[in-house]
Amino acid sequence: MNIVKVYQDEQSPLKRKAIAEQAYLLYINEFLTIKCFSDYYGTAIATASEILREGKHWNSLPKIEAIEAMNLIEGIQHELATDNDQGKNDSETIKGVYKRATGKERAAIDNVFISLTGWTLESLIKMY
Asked: Torsion over CA of 36, 40, 41 and 46, rounded to 10 degrees?
């Protein structure tokens, strides 16, 4: 896998950040110089430096700051899209939490779902 090409082809800023951080860690662990990194991936030193600089930035932030710096909706969408354990259990857990929630808690949950999907969780449960 050519991590530089993957980074350059990626459109999502969130995914680009993760790829840059991965490239930085790969550089730290596998390559002695930026030139070796750029030669291996067949890219200009300036391009390699830019990617590694971004990766170093994201790697150096405490994880909570990195999360706060990204778009929350994009982060949630990314986590949902990359969750390997999605399935019926997750759906049943969400439904159970909603059913046991008080009126105020349901309103809060519905507000979150409206922000994410445009629908209340109650509406989504009825649809699916």
From this structure: 20
How far apart CA 105 and CA 103 sit, in angstroms, is 5
Query: Does position 72 have pLDDT exceeding 70, yes or no?
Result: no
In a domain, 78, yes or no: no
**C-alpha pair distances (Å), 42 with each of 36, 118, 123:** 10, 44, 51
Collect all residues with Cβ–Cβ distance below 8 Å to 6 and sequence separation of at least 6: 19
Percent of the chain with pLDDT over 70: 77
Q: Is residue 11 situated within a structural domain?
A: yes
- Taking a C-beta distance cutoff of 8 angstroms, is the pair 3, 22 a contact? yes
Residue 77 lies in a domain: no
